[in-house]
């Protein structure tokens, strides 16, 4: 494990340098500085928990999971911009699981207001959500929050380190800090003398950073705001990057897991003999709901796992997709879980409107799997009372806490190494894959065991994107939309995941049922959104853009239906309604209209659709163009306009916008997880397809920058893609498809 | 029984069952982890390697059939210190996101360009259809293949 192993020793050192940054709140736990988790070898100096200086360069601890979203590069750029070091000499590491690396912005999205409305006292309360992640030490990558959390924190870490280095040099020269400057990894005196940072680092580590840190204005940025070469690019294109599945340790055994296909059901009985009879099979470990098979190689472990006769119990959940949908429907008969938007009186407006002006529609979306390219896996080693875990994961402190409890060792005896993630999309914010490796490690003390799931296990034991349905009503008039009344039924993901991950079943309404529906910046006079919590406890999780992935489709398909029923252009009407509430959102719609030549002449045989979603602080508008071909409907072109506040790395923002869109289009055309006999039907890519290169439309992205607050970029590209495609399909075919995936109703080339 | 296989110009004697897929021989026995497991059913392309210059899904190639052939993996076509021309194009276009599928994408594209140094868009589409990328890096993959083809032409 090289560097990571050397830096993250179990004996945590507290250096004298304070953690810079963070919002000061009047709560003791929130103000208290957290210990620096970095323990170093001789000759290395940690200036704070984010900056380590060695003779051969600068290691920046970027404590968010790099799962493709480019977070290491941009977090490193935030530090390097202020530290004044050459980009080529920077390395990044995930760093250990440690409270110091909490994500202060994580719960900001949990406040019950639309993201575009967080100002004034709501800003203050949203900042107060910073306290809880800090107290709990929630080191989580999710909710598209890494930049919101890191923008000041990481720049202050770089500036604090730079100023202590300047102080160290000034003292050596008998000068004041103000007399010297930092440049290109050196401190320089007025007479031109220079000392490299490395020669100052040990001394600097004993100096308290000044409290008057001033961050550079944007006009002086050299790295931020520019396309930086990704720090992970060369290892990833040469096969040298270590993903979880690539961890290799001396004496390591290879294992796999096979669990009850009937979700939530236990294992009644099994016979390990046929597996143990295979040469090279080491052990069969019985779990409550399945087996882990340990062998000399992964392939053998997978063969052996299949050879074990197992009797499974039934699933406690409704066993078929139709029985589950019946639960979604039944939820509408109960009291709503939430009414998070209630402008005017939509119910009365619908009651008094003439029947021909009232539009009604019902929409459905299925369960979805994450299907990360790297199947779930983790490696664990239990030596006496010390547990070490290597895992591609989004939540190392949660893994540490749960693994400690499972292995019966204290938390400070658990070390979690985060590797590169071969895709995360929310799946790796769970802890199950790491805990299964811990089960294996417990059974083979002193032996590192890597547990790799087969693709089939991965797809049939996910925490699925909730299936959901929406019953929509609206009133149209000659101006456009007079009333909008949306009702959404879905499993309460927020409550289930809260209970599972933190042990806290959050009280109050479940925002995730209605996010993407209640919080959109449309100025509609009578506007009401109700959420209904379905009685369905099938394992659900965070799937790129979470509730927005369902509600973006519901909301934006229905806005299109209403606009067309009112005889209005769907783009023009959106711009008009959105402008009443949120100018930056109106501008992204105008941008996408201009880019796509919306309203201009259109080739025959071509359909276009637009959709808009404000999620994770970033408004995104997309136009998708489709045409017909012999093999079915073909995606031709796509345009995306977004406003993340500031484009910290424009090339990466572009990549993430396209990535989010492709993830959504895959779901819109192909994605469906169904159930039979309590088990998931789909098991591998042949029956859970995704967009492939020949199907990829050409895409143009435009980034607008309205300034702070910073929005996310990893998720907001996903929600508008699905309705934009459905609206384009309607434009082309006249067929309004209200149930995803679209591929069930129409064929796609 | 023991088989002898040649990988990236080196000979390895491996004492493993003949029906074991090459993918797992590379990863678990030889420690060449650049070749990835994605699906095990030749549906995603993450395990693509070259066998006598042709792109092959190593999850479907039994060891017994791999023996005696020239196998090249992602580790064999370039290194961080000496990137291949195709990898240079991948770097210039900043293609990778999570990066997990990229070794397979690069091996597939390298085989395409070796057989057809100036592929049309349709030929690129057809050659790359079997390689899945859940991050959606497709536009940059297309661009990188086109610029690598251009560079190859320049170099003659």
Helix content of chain A: 25-40%
Query: How would you sum up the global shape of chain B?
Result: globular
The mean pLDDT of chain A is 91
Q: How many individual domains of chain A?
A: 3
Mind telling me the CATH class of the largest domain in chain A?
Alpha Beta
Mean pLDDT of chain B: 97
Annotation, overall tally of beta strands of chain A: 27
Strand % of chain A is 15-25%
Low-confidence runs of at least 5 consecutive residues of chain A: 1-32
State the main characteristics:
heterodimer, A: 749 residues, alpha+beta, Aldehyde Oxidoreductase, domain 4, 3 domains, seven-stranded mixed β-sheet, 22 helices, 31% helix, 22% strand, B: 156 residues, 2 domains, 5 strands
Provide structural commentary.
The complex is a heterodimer of chains A (749) and B (156). Chain A is an alpha+beta fold and 749 residues long. Chain A folds into three domains: 2-236, Aldehyde oxidase/xanthine dehydrogenase, molybdopterin binding domain (Aldehyde Oxidoreductase, domain 4); 246-311 and 376-452, Aldehyde oxidase/xanthine dehydrogenase, molybdopterin binding domain (Aldehyde Oxidoreductase, domain 4, 2-Layer Sandwich); 332-368 and 464-744, Aldehyde oxidase/xanthine dehydrogenase, molybdopterin binding domain (Aldehyde Oxidoreductase, domain 4, 2-Layer Sandwich), CATH 3.30.365.10. Chain A contains 22 helices and 27 strands. In chain A, the strands form seven sheets. Chain A has a seven-stranded mixed β-sheet with strand order 10-11-8-18-15-16-17, sandwiched between helices. A five-stranded mixed β-sheet of chain A has the order 13-21-20-19-14, sandwiched between helices. In chain A, strand 25 (675-676) and strand 26 form a beta hairpin. Chain A starts with a helix and ends in a 16-residue tail after the last helix. Chain B has 156 residues and is an alpha+beta fold. Chain B folds into two domains: 2-76, Roll (Ubiquitin-like (UB roll)); 85-155, [2Fe-2S]-binding domain (DNA polymerase, domain 1, Orthogonal Bundle). Chain B has helices at residues 22-29, 63-66, 85-92, 102-115, 121-128, 138-155; strands spanning 2-7, 10-15, 48-51, 54-57, 70-72. Chain B has a five-stranded mixed β-sheet, sandwiched between helices. In chain B, a hairpin with a 2-residue loop joins strand 3 (48-51) and strand 4. The model of chain B has no long low-confidence stretch (mean pLDDT 97). Classes of the chains: A alpha+beta (749), B alpha+beta (156). At the A-B interface, helix 8, helix 10 and helix 21 of A face helix 1, helix 3, helix 4, helix 5 and helix 6 of B.
């Amino acid at each position: 494990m090289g560097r990571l192993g050397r830096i993250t020793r179990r004996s945590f050192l507290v250096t004298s340098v304070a953690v810079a940054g963070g919002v000061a709140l009047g709560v003791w736990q929130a103000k208290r500085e957290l210990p620096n988790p970095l323990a170093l070898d001789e000759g290395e100096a940690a200036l704070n928990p984010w900056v380590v200086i060695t003779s051969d360069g600068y290691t920046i601890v970027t404590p968010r999971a790099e799962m493709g979203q480019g977070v290491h590069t941009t977090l490193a750029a935030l530090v390097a911009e202020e530290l004044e070091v050459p980009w080529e000499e920077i390395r990044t590491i995930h760093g250990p699981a440690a409270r110091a690396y909490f994500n202060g912005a994580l719960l900001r999205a949990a406040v019950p207001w639309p993201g575009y409305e967080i100002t004034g006292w709501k800003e203050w309360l949203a900042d107060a959500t910073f306290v809880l992640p800090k107290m709990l030490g929630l080191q989580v990558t999710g909710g598209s929050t890494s930049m919101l959390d890191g923008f000041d924190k990481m720049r202050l870490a770089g500036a604090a380190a730079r100023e202590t280095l300047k102080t160290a040099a000034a003292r050596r020269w008998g000068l004041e800090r103000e007399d010297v400057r930092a440049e290109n990894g050196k401190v320089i005196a007025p007479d031109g003398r220079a000392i490299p940072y490395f020669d100052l680092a040990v001394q600097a580590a004993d100096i308290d950073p000044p409290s008057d840190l001033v961050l550079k204005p944007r006009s002086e940025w050299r790295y931020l705001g520019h396309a930086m070469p990704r720090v992970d690019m060369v290892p990833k294109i040469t096969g040298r990057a270590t993903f979880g599945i690539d961890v290799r340790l001396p004496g390591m055994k290879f294992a796999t897991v096979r669990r009850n296909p009937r979700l939530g059901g236990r294992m009644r009985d099994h016979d390990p003999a046929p597996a143990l009879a295979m040469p090279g099979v080491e052990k069969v470990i019985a779990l409550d709901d399945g087996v882990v098979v340990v062998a000399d190689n992964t392939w053998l472990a997978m063969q052996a796992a299949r050879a074990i006769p197992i009797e499974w119990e039934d699933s406690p959940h409704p066993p078929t997709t139709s029985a589950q949908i019946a639960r979604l429907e039944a939820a509408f008969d109960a009291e709503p879980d939430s009414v998070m938007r209630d402008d005017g009186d939509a119910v009365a407006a619908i009651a008094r409107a003439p029947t021909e002006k009232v539009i009604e529609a019902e929409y459905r979306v299925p369960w979805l799997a994450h299907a990360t390219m790297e199947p779930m896996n983790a490696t664990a080693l239990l030596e006496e009372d010390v547990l070490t875990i290597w895992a591609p994961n989004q939540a190392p402190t949660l893994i540490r806490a749960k693994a400690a409890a499972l292995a019966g060792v204290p938390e400070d005896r658990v070390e979690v190494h985060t590797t590169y993630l071969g895709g995360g999309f929310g799946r790796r914010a769970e802890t199950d894959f790491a805990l299964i490796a811990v089960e294996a490690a417990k059974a083979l003390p002193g032996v590192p065991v890597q547990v790799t799931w087969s693709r089939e296990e991965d797809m049939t034991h996910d925490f699925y994107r909730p299936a959901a349905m929406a019953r929509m009503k609206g009133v149209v008039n000659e101006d456009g939309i007079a009333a909008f009344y949306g009702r959404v039924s879905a499993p309460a993901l927020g409550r289930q995941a809260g209970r599972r991950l933190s042990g806290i079943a959050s009280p109050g309404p479940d925002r995730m049922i209605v996010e993407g529906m209640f919080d959109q910046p449309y100025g509609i006079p009578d506007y009401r959104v109700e959420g209904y919590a379905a009685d369905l406890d099938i394992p659900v999780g965070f799937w790129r853009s979470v509730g927005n992935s369902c509600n973006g489709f519901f909301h934006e398909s229905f806005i299109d239906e209403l606009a067309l029923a009112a005889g209005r252009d769907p783009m023009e009407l959106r711009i008009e309604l959105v402008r009443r509430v949120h100018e930056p959102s109106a501008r992204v719609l105008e941008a996408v209209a201009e880019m796509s030549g919306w309203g201009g002449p259109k080739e025959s045989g071509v359909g276009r659709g637009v959709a808009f979603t404000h999620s994770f602080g970033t408004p995104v508008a997309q136009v998708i163009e489709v045409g017909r071909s012999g093999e079915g409907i073909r995606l031709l072109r796509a345009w995306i306009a977004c406003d993340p506040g500031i484009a910290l790395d424009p090339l990466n923002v572009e990549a993430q916008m396209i990535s989010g869109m492709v993830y959504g289009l895959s779901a819109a055309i192909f994605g469906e997880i169904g159930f039979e006999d309590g088990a998931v039907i789909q098991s591998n890519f042949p029956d859970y397809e995704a967009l492939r290169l020949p199907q990829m439309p050409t895409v143009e992205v435009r980034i607008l920058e309205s300034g702070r607050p910073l929005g996310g970029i990893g998720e907001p590209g996903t929600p508008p893609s699905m309705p934009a495609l459905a609206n384009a399909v309607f434009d082309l075919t006249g067929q309004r498809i209200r149930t995803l995936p679209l591929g069930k109703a129409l064929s796609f080339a | 029984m023991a088989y002898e296989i040649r990988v990236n110009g080196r000979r390895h004697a491996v004492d493993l069952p003949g029906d074991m897929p090459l993918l797992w021989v590379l990863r678990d026995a030889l420690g060449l982890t650049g070749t990835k497991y994605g699906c095990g059913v030749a549906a995603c392309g993450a395990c693509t390697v070259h066998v006598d210059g042709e792109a092959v899904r190593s999850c479907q190639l039994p060891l017994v059939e791999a023996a005696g052939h020239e196998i090249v993996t992602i580790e064999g076509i370039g290194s961080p210190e000496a990137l291949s021309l195709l990898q240079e194009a991948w770097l210039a276009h900043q293609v990778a996101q999570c990066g997990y599928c990229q070794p397979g994408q690069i091996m597939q594209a390298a085989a395409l360009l070796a057989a057809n140094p100036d592929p049309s868009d349709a030929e690129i589409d057809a050659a790359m259809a079997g390689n899945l990328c859940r991050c959606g890096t497709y536009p940059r993959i297309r661009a990188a293949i086109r610029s690598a083809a251009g560079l190859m032409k320049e170099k003659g």
